[in-house]
Every structure is written in structure tokens, then in C-alpha cells.
Write a structure and sequence with these properties.
- About 80% of the residues lie in helices and about 0% in strands.
- The chain is mainly α.
- It has one domain.
- α1 packs parallel to α11, α2 packs across α8 and α6 crosses α9.
Length: about 300
């Protein structure tokens, strides 16, 4: 792993590379846990698209006071913010459509599992990142495990349409991960990009959601605003942590590790949605955990 020092280096220099990577790992695992909570609560919402609208708007409102304490984004960062807001608007729609079509424990793993595959390919092609064989195997294990959990639901109602939307969601996850990893590295102060991301995202969703769903989505948003407040705050925690982690670590590796959120999401689905966990799904969950460990052993 590029962040770890080689044998023989001066011991006084060890904390320099280790601390950023340790911070990145802590941030990405925090992101994974909170991400699962946000999505399971979104699945339970009466109108899921209205809830995603509320998340975008409230997260933008929450970060607005902090904008006065960070520099304005400039140059490349502005274009990246515009790009990620557009991709996130498509992501929100595909995510909700997948939730409306099939079981959470089916579509969520497929969406999250294919995302790192697209991220890894893009990181190699566009960001010039290279990973050793052990990390590549770890990424494939994490992705394969989460996809297996999703495909184990293939006999469920609406699974075909749900998986199609989930695959589209995974592609948008790969796209916005690459954009945001580039954006948070393109500014001198990472919080500049992180905070302005939530503003750009909130504005884009506020404009596109009524255009896609009409006034009905606004009426439902007004009815569910209390849960939207909570999820807006949690959204800042989950994706803000992820973007800060990308500042310090390899994009593909951290994106795959974030998909351990599937483990937390599956447990929550069993507890709160009453969705069963078969032996095959438990084995797949073990593969995810093993892949996450292998990622850090590389």
C-alpha cells in the first residue's frame, strides 16, 4: 500500500504516511455505517423521491453558515461541482426507482457493489492510480460479495426492473466518486469542495425533482420534513466523511471499502424491514468482510 513506509526508513517519519491513511480508513468506515442508516430510512419513507429531495435541500441549508469560513471554489473545482451535481440528480432518480421496484436487500447491494467496479476502472484510466494485485483481489471480493447478495433475490417480485435500476445507480456512483475524488484534491482546502458540494447538490435536486415528479413531490416533502431534517444531517456525515477520505487515500480502494455498508444495511433490513437472510447471503457477507481485510493487507 502506497501510504505505508518501507522497511529501513527513519522511524521518526513513520507517523507522516500512517496518520493520513488511518484517518482515511476511519472516515470511510464512518461513512459506510451512516450511509446504511440513511438508505434504510429512505426505503421506509412513504415517498422516497420526496425524501431524497429533502435530504438534498436540508443538507445544503445546514452547511450554508460554514461557507463564510472557507475559500470560494475556483477554476477546475467549479466545473467538477457542476458535474457532480448533475450526476447526483440522475443518481437520486435511479436509486429511488430501484427502491420502488424491488426489496432493499436486493437492489442496495447491487448498486453499491457495482459502484466500486466502475470507480476502479475510472481511477486507473482517468486518475492514473495503480493498485497491487492483493488490493485488486480485495476490490473484486467486496464487489462480488455484495452483488451475490443482490442476485440471491432473483426470484423476488420486480427484481428484473429493480436490478436494472440498481446497475444504473452503480454506474452513477462510479461517475460521481471519480468526480468528487478529483474535486476534493483540486482545492487547497478540502472543506471548500465538500461544503460547496452539498449546496450544488441541493440546488440541482430542488430544480429537477419537481420537474420529474411534479407538485406531488413537493406536497409529500412538506409532510415528511421532520425525517428529512434528520437524514439531511446524516447525509452530511456520510458523504462528507467519504470525500475527506478520498483526499488522503486511493480512490478505488476506499470506494470498495465503503461498500461494507452493505453489511450494515443487510442487518438493518432484517431488523426493521423483516427481510430474510439466507445462508448464501451470510457467505457473501463473509466474502465482503474478507475482501475489506485484504484491501488493508495489500
Amino acid at each position: 500500500m502506497a501510504w505505508l513506509p518501507r522497511a529501513g526508513h527513519d522511524k521518526l517519519r513513520l507517523p507522516v504516511p500512517i496518520v493520513p491513511m488511518t484517518l482515511a480508513l476511519g472516515l470511510i468506515l464512518l461513512s459506510a455505517v451512516v450511509h446504511a442508516i440513511v438508505n434504510i430510512l429512505t426505503k421506509r419513507a412513504d415517498d422516497k423521491y420526496a425524501m431524497r429531495l429533502l435530504i438534498g435541500v436540508f443538507s445544503a441549508i445546514f452547511v450554508t453558515p460554514a461557507l463564510f469560513f472557507v475559500p470560494l471554489p475556483r477554476g477546475e473545482a467549479v466545473w467538477l461541482l457542476g458535474g457532480t451535481a448533475f450526476v447526483h440528480a440522475i443518481y437520486e432518480l435511479l436509486l429511488v426507482r430501484s427502491y420502488e421496484s424491488a426489496a432493499f436487500s436486493a437492489v442496495y447491494p447491487v448498486a453499491r457493489g457495482t459502484g466500486p467496479l466502475f470507480t476502479a476502472i475510472g481511477a486507473i484510466l482517468f486518475l492514473g492510480e495503480h493498485a497491487p494485485l492483493t488490493e485488486i483481489i480485495g476490490i473484486l471480493m467486496v464487489c462480488g460479495g455484495v452483488i451475490t447478495i443482490g442476485l440471491s433475490h432473483r426470484a423476488s417480485d420486480g427484481i428484473g426492473k429493480g436490478l436494472a435500476y440498481a446497475l444504473g445507480t452503480g454506474f452513477t456512483i462510479g461517475c460521481y466518486t471519480l468526480i468528487d475524488a478529483s474535486g476534493v484534491r483540486a482545492v487547497p482546502e478540502p472543506l471548500t469542495y465538500v461544503l460547496w458540494f452539498f449546496v450544488a447538490h441541493g440546488f440541482c435536486v430542488l430544480v429537477t425533482a419537481p420537474g420529474i415528479r411534479g407538485r406531488a413531490v413537493v406536497r409529500e416533502a412538506r409532510r415528511q420534513w421532520r425525517l428529512g431534517l434528520l437524514l439531511g444531517a446524516l447525509s452530511i456525515t456520510t458523504y462528507g466523511s467519504a470525500m475527506l477520505a478520498y483526499r488522503f487515500g486511493a480512490t478505488a480502494e476506499l470506494a470498495a471499502l465503503r461498500e461494507t455498508s452493505v453489511l450494515f444495511g443487510t442487518a438493518l433490513a432484517m431488523t426493521f424491514l423483516g427481510e430474510p437472510m439466507t445462508l448464501r447471503r451470510w457467505i457473501a457477507a463473509g466474502v465482503i468482510a474478507a475482501g475489506a481485510i485484504l484491501l488493508q493487507a495489500g
